[in-house]
Amino acid sequence: MNEFALIERFFQRSTHDSAVRIGIGDDAAVVAPAPGCELAISVDMLVEGRHFLPDVDPESLGHKTLAVNLSDLAAMGAKPRWALLGGALPDADERWLAAFTRGLFALADRFDVALIGGDTTRGPRNLCVTIIGELPAGCAITRAGARPGDDVYVSGTLGDAMLVLAALQGRTVLDEATLAALRARLERPEPRVALGQRLRGVATAALDVSDGLVGDLGHILERSRVGAQIDVASIPRVPALDERLGGRERELALSCLLAGGDDYELCFAAAAAARDALRAIARDTGVPLTRIGTITAQTGLRVVDENGNAMAAVPGAFDHFRQ
Ligand code: ADP
Ligand code: MG
């Protein structure tokens, strides 16, 4: 199978999105954004051996490749519309490609995202999605708007992905049902797309937690020139993490909650006056929202443990270039 046959067979599909004037097959795609909308554009790369293992289930990888990008748009409050896929592949393995695109398109279809282009080349496996979304003009939720006195929230539960990774690496033991449930969280993260759009005009700042709460919240604090206090006791967590927090594996549990990446939940700030609105948003979207702390005028992040004491050593965020 040559490159063009491969593209036609696995990536080119018809779309009923009339805003796609020219899709896959020409030198560039052409789209018509809705009047009054701005475009939110983001790119994320997944590299074999770095973000996923060579034997990863390709269907899950297809899901995750798009999910991490949808999560970025969710954090901006944007509605995802179009995606481009750059792929380096070691070979034209048809079974692998069929499974990968099944996972990718299943998620794309759920959120009405059309694949409008990409690039395909031979090389060590590396997948890179560019995502384009729409926003009513001036309505993007940035990292820069948090104000002293705002509440700090996270969606869902934190630490799931890192806990299951620890189990897969033999650093802890999970029962089979928990392992299966958390494995889905790691391999098939659910981007909080509907939540993100509902947070427009409500959240003062937001981002998605991909590298760990402490590091990611730190980005909001830095860009907003504020600080925060968060309470470990209030960080939403699965029972398997809750048990560990009070036991011999406390260090692991703290790392998962504070520094665990890959959960793709949203962390955001909102004025106290928005509490009722946020309860309604949680109800409507079915995504639990938990208040974990407060934005402060004093800069820096204070993490308070279950006894009310400020933690001296706080596990940090994942950083690809940390020495
Ligand atoms: P060019 O040589 O102009 O870069 P290509 O031959 O790379 O064009 O691609 C042909 C068409 O197929 C283009 O429309 C491109 O966007 C699309 N395409 C290539 N690879 C992919 C892919 N992995 N996913 C989606 N579309 C792709
Ligand atoms: Mg090309």
Distinctive features:
323 residues, four-stranded mixed β-sheet, six-stranded mixed β-sheet, binds magnesium ion, single chain, 12 strands, alpha+beta, binds adenosine-5'-diphosphate
Structure description:
It is a single chain. This protein has 323 residues and is α+β, with helices and mostly antiparallel strands. It is built from ten helices and twelve strands. It has helices at 3-11, 58-76, 94-110, 160-168, 176-187, 193-198, 213-224, 239-245, 250-259, 275-285; strands at 20-22, 30-31, 37-47, 79-89, 114-122, 126-136, 151-155, 203-209, 227-231, 265-270, 289-296, 300-304. The protein has a six-stranded mixed sheet with strand order 8-10-7-11-9-12. The chain has a four-stranded mixed sheet with strand order 3-6-4-5. Strand 4 (79-89), helix 3 and strand 5 form a beta-alpha-beta unit. Helix 2 runs parallel beside helix 3 (94-110) and helix 8 (239-245) crosses helix 9 (250-259). The radius of gyration is 20 Å and the shape is globular. Adenosine-5'-diphosphate (ADP) binds at residues 7, 11, 24-27, 85, 87, 115, 117-120.
